[in-house]
Amino acid sequence: MSGALPPGMDLCKIPAMMPPPGVIPNFENxxxxxPTIIGVSSVLTAIATVFTIGRIINNYQVRNIxxxxxxxxxxxxxxVGYWISIMGLTRFHRHQWDVPxxxxxxDFMKWVFVQGIFVPLGIMFSKxxxxxxYLQVFTVERKMRIAIWVGIVATSLIYGYSLIVVPYxxxxxxxxxxxxxxxxxxxxxxxxxxxEQGSLAVLIDLYILILPFPVLSTLKLKKRRRLKLxxxxxxxxxxxxxxxxxxxxxxxxxxxxxxxWAQAQxxxxxxxxNYIAVIVACMPAFAHFCEVHIGESQVFKSISSxxxxxxxxxxxxxxxxxx
Length: 323
What we know:
The protein is built from twelve helices and no strands. By secondary structure, it is mostly helical. 34% of the residues are buried.
């Protein structure tokens, strides 16, 4: 970027992209998606953390800690790492013509590398944890077990691929610095890969969503229990929606010159996709945790009884007035 500019020019006074006609670059108070990204990602981080802790405590207390619990912790850690990397680039969550050119430096490239590592780790382990949950629930169905393992292998290949290409393209080679990556633009070669991976991610999410329903429909369960299971596994549909939207914005990253704005929109979708996967994987254990530690607590029972008495008193009073 700097090679095309006259020597000695202050890059902090030059926008990273020429603005559209009639638009003046605004470095001080620009339109930004930062508040939305911070709000959505922080709330989801807190919720996913609570669900993860609830799952681990529940399974530890019932002496049922398994490999899936370690996997979901890795998924949570990867998702939190991705969230931290997003927070590290908060000032870039604006239109690219509102970004000073001097902000593109070695530190920026380090954050890009960190994101490239954490996002596949978070989503891969979280989705594998969901599939391992299916493996625990549907232990009898042989065809189901084979289908689950197919999903685990496919998920590992789709996201594990990033752990190979990202270090090669997004990190300095021997003799290079992080600033050199801005000149050779090697990390930008990963942009089409993101769209390709996003397409496969949508297919995997649909596979994970649909997989349990044929078996659930045949199980002999009480209606309430069946509906509860449909709700738990149906929550994955939110992840499908997020992955579809993420794919749209990843494609937009390829064709839209306003890269920082499209990337900021992508952040929202990817963080939702990651954390929904964590929450879905933790939901059954977390529900049992709440039932035991909240539903059976004296405080909860006291509040419930007061609400019941209040509703009963109100209905009786209403009946007397009608009489």
